[in-house]
Amino acid sequence: MDKLKARWNIQDNWQLTVIFIVFAITGSTAAKFAGPLVEYLGITKESGALIYWPARILLIFPIYQILLVFFGWLFGEFQFFWNFEKKMLRMFGLFKER
Fold it and tell me: What are the distances in angstroms from CA 83 to CA 1, 11, 37, 42, 68?
């Protein structure tokens, strides 16, 4: 845990615990939202696994990004998650700092 705290520049175990909770809530919520959204778009399991699951996974990604910053803000860790988000989006080439 000390290596992770040093890598993320986190001061204490409580902050690390809050960050883990935010990651868990965000992942669960994004997965939960993706199901109804895929069905709203008219893609159901009857459409076939090769269409349904890739569509659902592709929808989870942007939902996750938005919720991560939102839940980070809600739990008082906005700055950590905003920096984390920018780093992740830079990796995909979707964000460039000015």
Answer: 20, 16, 28, 35, 11
